[in-house]
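Example 229.
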Amino acid sequence: MDSIIKTIDVHKSFQLGNHEILEVLKGVDIDVPPACLTILKGRSGSGKTTLLNILSMLDDPTSGKVIIDSRDVGSMSVRQRETMRRYNIGFVFQSVALVPIMSAYENVDFALKLADYKGDRDARIREVLSIVGLEKRMAHMPSQMSGGEQQRVAIARAVAHKPKIIFADEPTGALDTNTGLGIIKLFKELIAKEGITIVMTTHDPNLMVFGDAVYEMEDGELKYVPAEQ
Ligand SMILES: Nc1ncnc2c1ncn2[C@@H]1O[C@H](COP(=O)(O)OP(=O)(O)OP(=O)(O)O)[C@@H](O)[C@H]1O
Ligand SMILES: [Mg+2]
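Predicted structure in complex with adenosine-5'-triphosphate:
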């Protein structure tokens, strides 16, 4: 199967104030299969977020190639990258950033407007809020929902405009194990129903079994973790 995202020998270094250079990624090669859940694990500070930021074009590698949807990101203009981010990519973070003065429905609507969604917005909002199991919470404000419910709104918002790829950095980090499991099951359902590709980071060893592909970051290198038999 062709990968939807691929990196070739990606390095990332940060220049520190004292003229030291911190090399965080030391030649990362990853293949992200389409319509699958790819999990990045590794200890705190190992470089997971750094890699996710590069895969999602929020940051540039110091050297190496990033290929998304058969296009070399390094040779894309700023405008081409913005277009790709806006239409093809969605984000979910650990700390849910819903607009506090908007209901669940309005939060998703806001995202659809930002993404310039051309379809029937009302129908799509109802559809994604039902997929995440919040059809009865559409009028609730974020302060009237639990942490897990808010994260489900954030996921509905990230997938509403039908992006090809969702990047999720510790999406279950602030949730208890069972609620976290619910989010992963929801991801699997979205992959099955909408053909989305999801790349997520996690510390939680209980979640690894749900990954179609699992990679571990260690000392700046990324290793493929084969599924346990
Ligand atoms: N902008 C930056 N400038 C300097 N150092 C940075 C910068 N961003 C990240 N780092 C360093 O790079 C290393 C990797 O950070 P990163 O956030 O990618 O880790 P992580 O694996 O996501 O950790 P966690 O599991 O705690 O979220 C850390 O040592 C961090 O201090
Ligand atoms: Mg991180």
